[in-house]
Design goal:
Length: 329
């Protein structure tokens, strides 16, 4: 009996790895030592870049958004979603991405699907200046139903110790700004799929006038990467704290991000106002924020000093084409 008789095709796996190597190598930065295929990936820190470098790491997945990708046959977007989600997580502490690794598992390897997923990760990594330095592709017959797979990502970034964003400088009166998402990003898909596909009985290619799109395409809208928009103001030290709004919404992530805990002694808390995107002056409501259904919820919140508002609204412009006033600390 051969390995292929058990459902593992080594020749197909080798073909898939060649495609992975091509896309991954396009992301390599000067810090990468060697190539894809070793037992471990090597990365050299640039000692001239940071006086006291601190590594920041995170791991995450795409969740049941993968089910939508499988139903539509579009897989490259969720590859990019995975990278961007992980980048945003470490961005909260002021870190910039250095390298990324992925884990991909399916019952029977499909090189075309593998390539779509890795191409999406590669594209997102290149945009962020992050190296796709390695990963694991597993063929597991009998473990996953035909056509299904799972995907996870692991990221390591760097920040100078003195520039770590901890939230310790948040003060009462600080303004809360929110950058909007493109959609649900990578959270809430179990509920969304239940409502859309089971209760409403829609198909992925059903056109929904309210969102102006086919529902499958709408649900696959990308998880945005906020690093380019925030890079400049983070470097200037103008941001007191950050929260990546994922599972748990605004209340949950403002709590778990660490800012709330670090400010308990000063009893600083977030007051969210209705009319997200409006200037200060709207009606105030404590602890309330919309984001259900297909309303685009805020995905990145940053407090900053009110006296800096004038400068911030001029530089960088990219932030304030997107950001809106949502409340105060």
């Amino acid at each position: 009996m051969k390995y292929a008789d058990a459902g593992v095709d080594i020749a197909v796996a080798d073909a898939a790895k060649q495609r992975i190597r091509h896309h991954a190598s396009r992301t390599f930065t000067p810090g990468v030592l060697g190539g894809i295929g070793g037992f471990g990936a090597l990365f050299a820190l640039d000692n001239k870049k940071w006086k006291e470098p601190v590594l920041v790491s995170s791991a995450d997945g795409v969740g049941t958004k993968l089910k939508v990708a499988m139903a539509t046959g579009v897989h490259s977007t969720v590859g990019g979603d995975l990278v961007n989600h992980c980048i945003n997580d470490i961005l909260v502490q002021g870190a910039e991405p250095l390298f990324f690794l992925d884990y991909l598992a399916m019952g029977k390897l499909d090189p075309n699907v593998v390539e779509q997923l890795v191409e999406g990760m590669s594209r997102a990594c290149r945009k962020a200046g992050c190296a796709l330095i390695g990963g694991e592709t597993a063929e597991m017959p009998g473990f996953y139903p035909p056509g299904e797979y799972d995907l996870a990502g692991f990221i390591v970034g760097g920040v100078d110790r003195k520039k770590i964003v901890t939230g310790k400088n948040v003060k009462p009166g600080d303004t809360l700004l929110a950058l909007p998402s493109a959609g649900l990003h990578t959270n809430g898909y179990s509920l969304a799929r239940k409502l859309v596909f089971e209760i409403a009985k829609l198909k992925p290619d059903t056109y929904v006038a309210e969102v102006g799109n086919k529902i499958g395409a709408e649900l696959l809208k990308p998880h945005l990467c906020y690093a380019p928009a925030l890079k400049d103001i983070l470097a200037r030290g103008w941001v007191s704290a950050l929260a990546h709004i994922t599972g748990g919404g605004i209340p949950g992530n403002l709590q778990v991000s660490g800012q709330a805990r670090q400010n308990r002694r000063r009893r600083a808390s977030a007051i969210i106002q209705h009319g997200c995107g409006d200037d200060p002056g709207g009606s105030t409501a404590k602890c309330e924020a919309s984001g259900s259904g297909f309303e685009a919820p805020a995905r990145k919140i940053l407090p900053h000093r009110p006296h800096r508002a004038g400068r911030l609204r001029q530089s960088p412009r990219q932030v304030f084409r997107l950001a809106g006033f949502v409340g105060r600390a």
